[in-house]
Design brief:
The chain is globular. The relative contact order is 0.20. With 239 residues, the protein is an alpha+beta fold. It contains six helices and 14 strands. It starts with a strand and ends in an 8-residue tail after the last helix. The protein has a single domain, classed as Deoxyuridine 5'-Triphosphate Nucleotidohydrolase, Chain A, CATH 2.70.40.
């Protein structure tokens, strides 16, 4: 399977980094976290180890799924006396390499329908997307805020693009946190892109199977730690 990344212009082709595997953007706070509450594994009193979130494979995998588009220049955020953020960057606004903009709503009534959480400035910003991916036939692309990156000073939207037939450049909305002032450095993950296969699904409620539930729980708990990873996890590769 292959994703082809297309630049939006020659500036992007030669100067802006194309999306890279998400595994290259593991957050520092996660990398520095210890897998156990103590320096060495100990029992939590219930037959399993005193693990932390660092030992959670589903959490780890959320950081490594798909690809990341990073910022290609520093963005300086200053809060003015009126409380409105002022965002500056180089290349400056109006050049071919601009990284973001503000989306204007047609009227106040329309803006009010666009709900923005209180912890963010009530302004809809947009990332300028320099690269778009073309996926194989039958595959779409999820564009979303980098998974579990609440430490970032912004919140990007989530959307799905039929990227096998459309891979043109576009605008990507995001909000800016009110409590942030400073620099968003170049190389910061802007959004995460994950290919998904289009298919039809039908949900079905099943009766509780006590034997199967007990078997699954037993198989994992017979390991002091890491049972899920040893028995169920399938490594995915994005390069």
């Amino acid at each position: 399977m292959k994703i082809k990344w297309y630049p939006g212009n020659t500036f992007a082709e030669h100067l802006i980094p194309a999306p890279k595997p998400a595994k290259l953007y593991m957050p520092d706070w996660y990398k520095s976290m210890h897998p156990f509450q103590t320096q060495r594994p100990r029992s939590n009193g219930h037959g399993t180890a005193n693990t932390t979130a660092k030992s959670c494979v589903p959490l780890m995998e959320s950081f490594t799924m798909g690809y990341i588009q990073e910022t290609w220049c520093d963005i300086f955020v200053k809060i003015t006396k009126t409380g409105v953020p002022q965002l500056t960057f180089d290349p400056p606004n109006g050049t071919i390499g601009e990284i973001l903009d503000v989306r204007g709503h047609h009227n106040e009534r329309e803006r009010e329908k666009f709900l923005i959480p209180n912890e963010f400035h009530q302004i809809e910003y947009i990332w300028k997307s320099p690269w778009w991916g073309q996926t194989p036939k039958g595959w779409s692309m999820i564009y979303t805020h980098p998974f579990n990156r609440q430490d970032l000073p912004f919140q990007s939207f989530t959307g799905i693009v039929e990227s096998d037939t459309f891979w043109g450049s576009g605008n990507y909305p995001f909000f800016l946190k009110k409590d942030f002032e400073g620099i968003i450095p170049a190389g910061t993950p802007m959004y995460q892109m994950i290919p998904v296969k289009r298919d039809s699904w039908q949900g079905e409620s099943m009766p509780f199977d006590e034997i199967e539930a007990t078997r699954m729980e037993y198989n994992i708990k017979r390991f002091f730690y890491g049972g899920y990873k040893k028995l169920h996890w399938v490594k995915k590769d994005y390069s």
